[in-house]
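User: Earlier you gave me the apo prediction for this protein. Now I'd like the version with pyridoxal-5'-phosphate bound, so I can compare the two side by side. Same sequence as before, with the ligand SMILES added.
Assistant: Got it. Here's the input I'm using:
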Amino acid sequence: MKKTAPAAQLDQKYLWHPFTQMRDWLKAKPIVLERGRGSHLWDLEGRKYIDANSSIWTNLHGHNHPKINRAIRAQLDKVSHVSALGFANAPAAILGERLISLSKPQSRFPKSEPRLAKVFYSDDGSTSTEVAIKLAYEFARRTGRTSKPRFLSLDGAYHGDTIGAVSAGHIDLFHKAYSGMLFKTDKVASPYCYRCPFNKAKPERADARYYRKCNMECVDKVSEQFEKRNKRGGNYAAFIVEPGVQGPAGMIAQPKGWLGKVASIAREHGSQIIADEVMTGLGGASSTYFASHAEKVQPDYLCIAKGLTGGYLPMAATLTTKEVFSAFLGEYEEFKTFFHGHSFTGNPLGAAASIASIDLLESAKTKKQRSQLAKYMKEFSAPLWKLDSVGDIRQSEGVLAVELVADWKTRKPFELSKQVGIRVCNNMANRGVLTRPIGNVIVVMPPYCTTQSQVKKIFTVLHDSIKEST
Ligand SMILES: Cc1ncc(COP(=O)(O)O)c(C=O)c1O
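And here is the structure of the complex with pyridoxal-5'-phosphate:
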């Protein structure tokens, strides 16, 4: 057999990494991850790390989980892929039922909220939101609500990298260069309490959501935006929102009540709601399976991806209502079909992994782990407030973000060019903890199985790395 060069060398010679300045990547030897178990990962040189961001917010139950492994192996012995174009497969069908059942509100919701009834599979977060956007577009046209459907999304929104998702995104750093190839969407203020122009409170050593002084003007802004659209004689086909936490915008955790209020405004104006729960769905950002449900909101489109397979395989789902589904029914020659899909839609391996992951999620053990993890994170992150470069720590259950600043008393940010977030994460990796920053925001979101002592280590390492890097 031909001898190959070490993986790090091959990587640097042949690969191009996502969201990565490759000039910097080529300067240092990359960490080549080889194996994992529970919350731990090992590199090729045998170094052990804690996976503190669940491999980019995907891994729910830890790596190499025996139950998910078994489910995938059992499916592998039958068949690894069959097409959903013209054929059904049992794991995808069973998963469909499980998702619809999980998406049923666990508490009493207003009767007017939609009922999710149908599942459309795709491959990742971007494709799940793309599906929702296309369905909402066509639904608005077919039901005669508007011939030119338009979308509203939040400042800082990120819904993925496909063109529809990018069009609904509002992060200039990622999206501006491509503006010429995008369709126009509107943006409205996001509830970013720590940096909100309406928040009159002086900075304190606490999560900005809990000491803010405002009248929730961010809600009024949403209302004004809908009215503005109405005055122009139109309405939005859909309001696209990341419920609970706006992840890629910097883990912006929403104040209690915000989502419920803005969802009501959207409904009053006859707009549909797309919940991008790519990060939050089945994840640890709320005590409910979906962050929308924590605010008694049921969207018309629910996008689930990252954690769907327990973080094992690329698979996503967009759940929607019978009403939307019906708008695409007709005689064959009417061509009302939803002409959209992918080669790997409904992949049986992904579906088998997802069913096993949902079984785990519903187990008493995981429920206990989830609530304990959030408590440990709260306890061990508290000492970070002593650091002058910590401006905000915002925690939503098992998702925690630390915003680093040049001066906490003024909220003055570090210049991005100083790469503070990147340096902190590099120092953390040297100390055996892996995560990835969003600008100057450090994300901690470990798998549910992470133990008390592992959580303690994550925050001790984060503390020391911030001290060393700022
Ligand atoms: C809220 C949200 N939507 C969409 C996406 C895109 O998902 P993917 O990277 O799987 O395409 C992400 C990815 O981080 C996300 O956090």
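For your comparison, keep in mind: Residues 71 and 263 are 38 Å apart (CA to CA).
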